[in-house]
Amino acid sequence: MGAYYGELAALATAFFWTITAMSFEVAGKRVGTISLNIIRLSMGFIFLTLFLTLSRGTPLPLNATAHNWLWLSISGVIGFTIGDLLLFKGFILIGARVSMLIMALVPPITALIGWIVMGETLTPANMLGMALVVGGISMVVLVRSPGSRQVVFSHPLKGVLAALGGAIGQAAGLVLSKYGMQGYDAFAATQVRIIAGMAGFVIFVTAMGYWGRVRLALHDRKAMGTMSLGAFFGPFLGVSFSLLAVKYTTTGVAATLMALVPILIIAPSVLFFKEKVTLREITGAVAAVGGVAVLFLWK
């Protein structure tokens, strides 16, 4: 069993992110995406601060270089402030299940950005994997209109675009994180990103005059409970186990197993949210995850 620490950690990460997505869908529908994001980032910051105090003996990333702070901060604003704001809007409009399926685009978008910006190589297998991911997602979000050959969206276009924006934000954030870390501690780097993401939301909430909404959200016990659950399993445990996964197994294996969320979330969506899931949607989710596997494992 010890030989599979990385694989087990990656599977655990997929389960954690499934819980996180469903928790934030419930909370977001009660208090809105703005309040949800700033509160859950604050919770994630608290969890990480406690962990770093115990593991590194310091609660804050004071030893980060100017390079770390600059690029990780930009990554945090793009990934957390912009990307997660759009993703959680998708949770509200089209649900966590379909939103997380669209998030399967993060690996191919990340690879594409790496190819364009950093000159990384894309093999024919990589291109095939990307095509499978796009094809699987298209099976879910596109349908033929009854009585015509016209292809239309099966879910609200605004929600699909919001989740797509979340995927682009997450992918760009990952690329910038890789550039900004440069050997720096991954947990401390995550804390820098969260600090920047929180700062972005503070500026946005202040400019829009939304602090009243945030105060109301803090008094919503059910929303706070689900946000606490999501923050614990997402920014804290999800990040921690994803790092363990890439430490003890290859990045490709870890990324493929962590990409199982669109499949894992189907059963709880039916059980708890009473969603109706078609065979076409299940097939699309499997194809998308298979595309991620091809992207990372078939060289």
What features would you describe in this structure?
The chain has 299 residues and is mainly alpha-helical. The protein has 13 helices and 2 strands. Strand 1 and strand 2 form a beta hairpin. Strands 1-2 form a two-stranded antiparallel ribbon.
Features:
299 residues; 81% helix
Helix content: over 70%
Alpha-beta classification: mainly alpha
pLDDT averaged over residues: 90
| Count of discrete alpha- or pi-helical segments spanning 4 or more residues | 13
Outline of this structure?
With 299 residues, the protein is mainly α.
Topology:
Layout (H helix, E strand, L loop, with lengths): L4 H27 L1 H24 L9 H37 L3 H13 L5 H18 E3 L6 E3 L3 H25 L4 H23 L2 H8 L2 H28 L2 H8 L2 H4 L1 H8 L5 H19 L2
Antiparallel strand pairs: 1-2
